[in-house]
Amino acid sequence: MESTSQTAQQTQTGQTWNANQYAANGRFVADLAKDVVALLAPQLGEHILDLGCGDGALTEQIAAYGAVVTGCDASASMLESAKARGLNVVPADMRSLPFQGEFDAVFSNAALHWVTDLPAVAQSVHRALKPGGRFVAEMGGLGNIAAIRVALQAVMTQFGIDAEKDAASRYPSRDEMRGILEDGGFRVTSIEIIPRPTLLKSGMEEWLNTFRNGILSKLSEADRQSAVDQTVALLRPALCDAEGVWWGDYVRLRFHAVRE
After folding, report:
1. Domain holding 26: CATH number?
2. pLDDT for the residue 130
3. 186-242 per-position pLDDT tens digit
4. Smaller CB count within 10 Å for the chain: N or C?
5. Is the pTM of this model over 0.85?
6. Residues 6 or more apart from 244 whose CB is under 8 A from it?
7. Which residues form the Methyltransferase type domain (predicted)?
């Protein structure tokens, strides 16, 4: 039976997280975040909020610059792992952050696309920032994991599940996200869409079990394995190379915006 925190998390994001599984199969997410951390350019003594901090791998990197970092996440499993790193973290829904004008910057990597109500997130971040504070983030953009999503949708339909709806994810275009930020009270200083085919060292089956766990958990164990096998078979011609190496068809949206 799911815990209350797991249920709340899945309501927010359509996904449940296991920190150990993520560390084994999803570490590439933090490893590929060098450019967005550089865009943040953390400064000594700055108060920075890491929005959707996960297990704290990037939070730790930002703190190493001398910034005073607070991490927040909706996943109890992830927060426990972040706490084990000695980080200051709090449970929070990014749509309704419990902060008012406290931060010089809000940073987020690979988290915003797990929430469909992005206008609420922008408004919540605006409230958390000091005047002139910056919002720097990278997330999935238009076309992100398109082949994976189409294949999974086709397979899950036979089980009566709408994979796109239940994933509760949103991958905006550059213009859409610019509008959301501007409507939320930000001046956008840079925003770009970045196609980034991404090596999946653990393979597609492990990716599905890690990053679409919320959807697959709706199935019995036997049906889940069948759904994964069918999805992998559909994707093999497009995303598995001649050497048997899997690649995710990632597209990132990266932006820097300033609170007006």
Report:
1. 3.40.50.150
2. 98
3. 999 999 999 999 999 999 999 999 999 999 999 999 999 999 999 999 999 999 999
4. N
5. yes
6. none
7. 49-136
Pairing mode, strands 88-91 and 129-140: unpaired
> How is residue 3 written in tokens?
């815990």
* Contact criterion met (CB below 8 Å) for 72 and 95: no
Q: Say if CB 106 and CB 185 are below 8 A apart.
A: no
pLDDT at 9: 41
User: Taking Cα atoms as reference points, which of 2, 3, 14 lies closest to residue 162?
Assistant: 14
Predicted confidence (pLDDT) at residue 25 exceeds the cutoff of 90: no
Total count of domains within the chain? 1
